[in-house]
Amino acid sequence: MPAFTQRIFAAIYDPALAASERGVFKPHREYVAGRATGDVLEIGAGTGANLPYYSEDIKQGAQLTVTDPNSFMLRKLTAKATKLGMTIASSVAPATNMPFEDESFDTIVGTLVLCSVDDQADVINEVARLLRPGGEFRFMEHVRGKGRLRGIFQDISMPLWRTCFEGCHPNRNTIAAIKASALELIETTEFGNGLYPVRPHIVGFARKPAPIPIRESKKENWPVSGMSDFKTGAIELVATGFTFTEGPLWHPTGKLFVSDVDARIHYVIDLMTGYKSVIRENSGGTNGATFDLDGNVVYAQQDAQQIVRMEDDGEITLLADRFEGARLNRSNDVVTHSSGDIYFTDPQELIPEDERELGYSAIFRLSPDGALSVAAKDMNHPNGLAFSPDESILYATNSRPDPHLHAYDAAPDGTLSNPRFLADMPYVPAEGTFEKYPGVFRSRDELGGVPDGMKVDEAGRILCTGPRSIWVFEPDGTHLGMIALPELPANLAFGDPDRQTIFVTARTSVYKLRTDVPGTKLPGMPA
Question: How many domains does the chain have?
């Protein structure tokens, strides 16, 4: 575009979009720019519409790098940055050929950029080149409309629109372009605001896959304290590069289901190679997982506040999301009884008080006929669940504010009785509070770990993730000792054909170790 035209476009850009910025784009720019972290590059930064939405860390400390092919737009951006007190580095450069070394940035931001470039694939490839492994490309774009007539209208409008608005294409299939690239599309949300031909819009982010290091066995031994009769092998790294791992479930095909609960992505790990594949994005905060009697995987989705089943074709079937008309809390862990009954914990402690519909925490029982009932509600924060080998006892962890191991007698008719305290699992002492979720503040004690997921071996011993380590108990609650790990554990599962491998989800990674006693076989586990 000639310099004269670039100057005019820079002059009219902000006034032309003023109404859209106020009424449409604000929350979406907050989503795209406000969650950028680390070393940040913004491509096609224009006049700086995203600047006010970056985090205070970036505004006040970290340097932001910006590029745009229009020097007149960058002048306006620089003036805005100065007013905001931001330190930026700017470069007049096209998005297809930027003057930076490979893997220079943790986050790349682009808003209303991929619609204006000559070749989307070239730009996305350049983004992939510049991102570090695990880095995010965060974007907001307008895209091709759904339906034949809308697409035709955008196609007809495209030549004139492109001429008037600095190469903007109203009919781009941006999602398909990202999916065809080296990036993994993690999340997209559509919003329909705006006038044709530039609607609908999408916001989302893609991630550059991180290589998964594989560690050979017997290179690292972590202590098993206080247990002379509980033997384990060396701890091995299975996979890493996650945000917060949960919900491990071993499958006889040699796969391990794992949820990155905070990133809301559900994965399957190939245990032969260590490579992870995305099963489901926007997973609803999938947490605990088990099998039903037909061998289908059943999940507790804490953010979506529901229990679901994944069918053979990958479709999701809702099993429970309400009880007596009230929305469930934050469904956490789930186990299946050999009768077909499914039990799940549903704590309310991490939900702001004004958003609680049930009014209590509970362990629910979901019968094979779909009937939902309260099995117990004497705990303030029920979390992990596991049956004894003969299914006569249901163990549960209580996470907060009274961290301990709990137990119930389980009758053949599915009812629970004789609730009792089994063993104390105290927090690691710390001072102050932290914001666990928006509006929910918790004691910093909990950062050292809380009683969480657990399993039982064939000897009846209870293995429970908790403060610092995996805690091991006798069936009567006698504390045998602890297994320390490289990272703070949240859940575990027995696996391999002999069920003598313990897979542990621990913050950013998944580990495994061998033990001398098999874990109890889960009802419904495929042969």
Answer: 2
